[in-house]
Design a protein that fits this description.
Blueprint: H1 2-22, E1 36-38, E2 41-43, E3 50-52, E4 55-59, H2 60-66, E5 70-74, E6 79-84, E7 87-92, E8 97-100, E9 103-106, E10 112-114, E11 117-121, H3 122-128, E12 131-136, E13 141-146, E14 178-184, E15 188-193, E16 201-205, E17 210-216, E18 219-220, E19 232-235, E20 242-252, E21 255-263, E22 267-273, E23 279-286, E24 289-295, H4 312-327, E25 333-337, H5 347-356, E26 361-368, E27 377-381, H6 387-401, E28 405-410, H7 414-417, E29 423-430, H8 434-440, H9 443-460
Parallel strand pairs: 1-13, 14-18, 24-25, 24-26, 26-29, 27-28
Antiparallel strand pairs: 1-2, 3-4, 4-11, 5-6, 6-7, 7-8, 8-9, 10-11, 12-13, 14-15, 15-23, 16-17, 17-21, 19-20, 20-21, 22-23, 27-29
């Protein structure tokens, strides 16, 4: 029962923690390879473990061989057989059951054949092959440990002195810094090593909010480990911004340490001192909301031609600049623009710009066009996380333009489809309508609309 609980929790952790980290890089439902360790050493299977349809699948052959089992493959029947002593396990590719010593058992997912390797659900491996399974969400790796009495050597803590007191070294044979302490005070993160130069890099993750710090060419003092198998641990956080601090020996070829701060709020971490020394001091400050303003079109892509002879790209940049300038006056907002001059930015690059910044909001500004009698204001969204924002923004926008209200609409415009944050495309009015075109280029009108867009952004972010 305990093992079933552990492995069930493992699957939940993998789903909850792995998928968000890779969601922006892989299409939904795609397979994501993750590292695999057995009895303290990293295995290098031809096909890495992966999550497929919310089930964690691991390559059975390399694990079985590490246990001293025999694995045979029947090509005609698409059947894999594992034998060791009195144990006999048979499985058929794409069939959601296995036979263990003559007893048919269900599988969480049918065995898969990928590049000549059979992958099985990790829970089945744990329950039927005498293996303890651990998941380390900092290192994002699966750790397996043989519980059947195998003589497989368990390696000393990776990157630390072994029985011969040989220290971990870099490619040139120089001893690596050993991190001795990781401490979270109310406003600072303190990381201290015994010597050397620490050179951290950082990135942020969403849902939940985390700050991830990687320190290459460094290892952890074994006294910091709370989980010896996964070379990981955690420390108490005394910060109102950080709920917990977790760390792990993230990699051993080359060596690197990963520290993860689980955030209670959107916070920035900046290194106050210690870069390239043995003592890092990071300071936490309330982060500004990152708002990306995207003036549509530009350069060789003029967009719609206005009835007064001007172009949509001109109108979009004028409006975008006004919104940007107003946002600069907001102390809690950091505005950014995809373009601030007559430059063409491909649609995917606009979305990538916002995604790479881990922005909180994306707003693309446009002028509409159809026939001379067309008129009105429209707000477009695509993803479900943008619906509330679309309704908030449209209430402000339609009131400010005074034009016919054409409502909130869902459409798969590229820039609002590929962005990872709440994203809108605003069609302020119709440039093809002679009267409306003149209004859209009116200075007072643009100022009023810019103020409305900023008001919509502030309401979405709960800024007073």
């Amino acid at each position: 029962m305990k093992l079933r609980l552990v492995t069930t929790l493992l699957s939940l952790l993998l789903i909850a923690l792995l998928i968000p980290a890779f969601a922006s890089a892989a299409p939904q439902g795609s397979a994501v390879g993750i590292p695999l360790y057995f009895n303290g050493k990293q295995l290098n299977p031809e096909v890495a473990p992966r999550i497929i349809k919310d089930v964690t699948m691991v390559p059975v052959r390399i694990i079985a061989e590490e246990l001293g089992s025999k694995v045979t493959w029947n090509q005609a029947q698409q059947q894999v057989t594992i034998t060791k002593d009195s144990m006999n396990i048979q499985m058929v590719i794409d069939k959601p059951s296995a036979t263990v010593n003559g007893t048919k058992l269900p599988l969480d997912s049918a065995p898969l054949l990928i590049d000549g390797n059979t992958l099985l659900p990790v829970r089945f491996i744990a329950e039927n092959m005498g293996i303890e399974v651990n998941w380390n969400d900092v290192a994002r790796a699966v750790y397996l440990k043989d519980k059947t009495g195998t003589t497989e050597t368990v390696l000393p803590p990776t990157g630390q002195p072994d029985k011969t007191d040989k220290p971990a070294t870099d490619a040139n044979g120089n001893p690596l810094p050993v991190i001795q302490s990781i401490e979270m005070t109310p406003t600072q993160l303190l990381i201290k090593a015994d010597s050397g130069a620490l050179q951290p890099t950082m990135f942020s993750l969403r849902d939940p909010n985390r700050i991830v710090i990687d320190i290459p060419n460094a290892v952890l003092n074994p006294s910091l480990y709370k989980n010896e198998a996964s070379k990981s641990g955690d420390t108490v956080s005394n910060s109102v911004y950080v709920s917990s601090v977790r760390y792990s020996l993230f990699n051993n070829n080359p060596y690197s340490v990963r520290v993860v701060l689980d955030m209670k709020d959107s916070i920035d971490l900046k290194w106050e001192s210690g870069l390239n020394t043995s003592s890092l001091v990071g300071v936490l400050n309330k982060a500004k909301y990152k708002v990306v303003i995207d003036p549509g079109h530009g350069d060789q892509d003029p967009g719609a031609k206005a009835a007064n002879g001007r172009t949509e790209k001109e109108f979009n940049l004028m409006m975008g600049t006004k919104v940007y300038n107003l946002l600069q006056k907001e102390p809690q907002i950091q505005p950014l623009m995809t373009r601030n001059d007559d430059t063409f930015i491909p649609l995917d690059d606009r979305g990538k710009f916002a995604n790479d910044l881990n922005a909180d909001i994306f707003v693309s500004i446009h002028g509409n066009s159809y026939i001379a009698t067309s008129t009105g204001t429209e707000t477009y969204y695509y993803k479900s996380d943008s619906v509330e924002f679309a309704n908030i923004m449209h209430n402000h926008l339609a009131a400010a333009t005074g034009l016919p209200d054409r409502g909130v609409r869902q459409e798969a415009f590229r820039v609002v489809k590929i962005t990872n944050m709440p994203a809108l495309l605003l069609e302020i009015g119709y440039l093809s309508n002679p009267k409306e075109s003149a209004t859209l280029f009116d200075e007072a009108f643009q100022n009023r609309v810019a103020e409305a867009i900023v008001a919509g952004i502030k309401e979405q972010l709960n800024i007073q």
